[in-house]
Design goal:
133 residues; two-stranded antiparallel sheet; 0% helix
């Protein structure tokens, strides 16, 4: 083969996970830099939501408990999140957290696994969790 054909072959890109392409940083036909990400892929059926609970609510959250979750994009729908992790150490409220209540000084990170939702929910969507009173 001559040098004129080098780099002109089409390659198939495979990902180690089943999922949906959320972002493509290289278009077909463009050259890709070695080590640079080509696409961002996520399994939209396995999303996790992290919420920050004030210290005075920490004892009310239980592993395996389910709570209603809402997002701005689907205001009429209620999704379900199940507590999969409760932090054992308090931290200061992250700067990017927006809550309807005033911020507390220290909070505990709580992770909820979101039930399958037909691909409606995407990583990075703001969400609200109703933890009850």
């Amino acid at each position: 083969p001559s040098n004129s054909t080098r780099g002109s072959s089409r390659e198939r890109i495979r990902t180690p996970i089943a999922g949906t392409v959320l972002y493509r940083s290289v278009e077909p036909g463009e050259f890709a830099s070695p080590g640079a990400p080509l696409v961002t892929v996520a399994d939209l059926d396995r999303l996790t939501l992290t919420v920050y609970v004030p210290e005075d609510r920490y004892g009310q959250i239980m592993l395996g408990a389910s709570y209603p979750v809402t997002v701005d994009s689907y205001p009429a729908e209620v999704f379900t999140g199940t507590v999969s992790h409760i932090a054992d150490r308090a931290e200061f409220t992250p700067r990017n957290v927006q809550t309807t209540d005033s911020r507390k000084t220290t909070v505990f990170a709580i992770k909820l696994d979101l039930a399958q939702n037909g691909g409606k929910l995407k990583p990075g969507m703001p969400a609200d969790v109703n933890l009850g009173e």
